[in-house]
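[scheduler] slot 2 assigned
[scheduler] job type: sequence-to-structure, two independent chains
[scheduler] chain ordering preserved from manifest
[runner] begin chain α
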Amino acid sequence: MKRGAFIDTVYILALLNPRDRWHQKAVELSKVRRAPLVTSHAVLTEVADALAHRSRRAWASQAIDDLRADADVKCVTVDASIFAGALRLYRERADKDWSLTDCTSFCIMRRQELTDALTADSHFVQAGFRALMQE
């Protein structure tokens, strides 16, 4: 498996909000060099949805623009194949409270051969990945 990491919504939101309970851990992890860094348009959509209030839209827009422009971050488009795999996982794991975005992230991580996720979301641990913000 590659040493890089998948960037999840929890990490992005924590970096943006100094009052977030995970902010300090996210800042610490942001200083550690990892490559490749991978996220998805589904995660970026989730960030925008979480910050949809008019007082926070500028945060979301800037964060998304910054990530998309960062040469060290690969932003994966959720194509039909990824979506189909994510929906299959979503159906198969009805015993879990995994969102479709989580399942999409898990499929992308497997394709990219990543084991580490910049997140505090325990669903990643349930799926067999490392949630670096919990460590």
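[runner] end chain α
[runner] begin chain β
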Amino acid sequence: MENFDKFSKEYEESLEVKFKKANGIFYTDLRLATLLLNELTFDHENMKIIDPYCGTGVFLAAAAEKGMKNLFGIDLDKKAINLAKKYTPTAKFTCMDSIACEFKDIMKRFKLKEKFDFVISNPPYVPLKSTSLNTKEYLFLRQVKNYGDNLYIAALLRAKEMVNDNGFIAFIIPKNFLHVNAYSFFRREILRDFSIISIIDLGMYFKNVRGEQIVLILKKQKNDNNKIKIKKLIDNEFKLLTEIKQDFYNDKIILFENDEDVNIYKKFNKAYTTLNDYVKGYVGRGHSKDKNSIGGKDIRKFGFKTPTAVTSGNQIFIQNIYSAEAGIIACFGGELKANDTITIFTDGDPTMCRYVLGLIHSRLINFYLLKYCFNISTVTMHIDARYLKSIPFIVDNENFNVVLEYVNKLENLTYMSDEWFKYYDLLNRMVYRIYNLSQKEINFIDLTIKKLQSKKWDKNGK
């Protein structure tokens, strides 16, 4: 086992980068595999464990180290399978496409009649449009497309077929599975039919993989009183952050980190309406093909990067790519045309547009987006209509004109000057007042945002 990581890594590095990306191949190291297995409870050494996308067999090697005897591995790569046999000779391996093949064919290959107690893997992540799924199962393929159109979705669906009642699925998958709309149907099915034992935030664990990953551990038995353990990889340990009752969720799964997180979320959803309740016009991507149309690169917070005349109209232009470091970048777009790198918000009242512009730039609204829409994703996300419409929104008659005054100052002052930062700070304080947040809540939000955003957005760190 001492040389396992070395030879596994050497073999992975021998594969062409283009081939790896096309097939979603990124190997798990022994340390992470061992941490994952430590999250599981094995009642006896003969419990059946399968890794259907095993590569060089790291999960099975780690399971063998724990004394498990009934181990099975599948992979399309014959060379990887040969390495796996060398390091885990007690396991049974076969070379086949475990996503394209029907489950009955897998059982026949291993001469098994009963399903598996554990299905553990780091499956391939790659959109189906970038690869192919060579299966004749029309309904399975249709389900994959409806559930997110990615190979790892197909792998999860196969895992459901493989695991026995009361058995476990433990997969390393992209973190965006928890909140991206394309996976909504599958999330609802999992919440309905499984107990989610734990979700572990790995951050950006794998080199050269865009995005962040989680460990998702499921039990094929629904427990109405189940609490999901939310954990995070910190200092080479899976540390418990909090526990959330599974019935709290009905679709999107938010990785709350503590009680304050939960309480603020509940307050947002109970005490306030949403921007959707006030939308009177269009919310969506720009669609102009004009070479002079405005793009995301042309705007900054509250204005344009180069002087642009805007005298009338009712549009807000929002940079479509959202990052934790910068937050919302938007300006009043008037009657200008925008391309598809801009998300447009319109309202029949131009004055309301500027009020909205002020609120969406605040730390409070950026906190909401980062925490409760994007699960603190450190990679860029698309700030599309459904995220904007979900924003908690208050029209405060008493302070409406004050917000407009601050927005006017931020539009006309020298960008990021001391005076500009002064009014940006005043705007943030006013928004906290409008939403009636306690000082404890304000401190929590400020601390969270300052940890994530670039220091240049804080006048003290300018």
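[runner] end chain β
[qc] chain β: The radius of gyration is 25 Å.
[scheduler] slot 2 released
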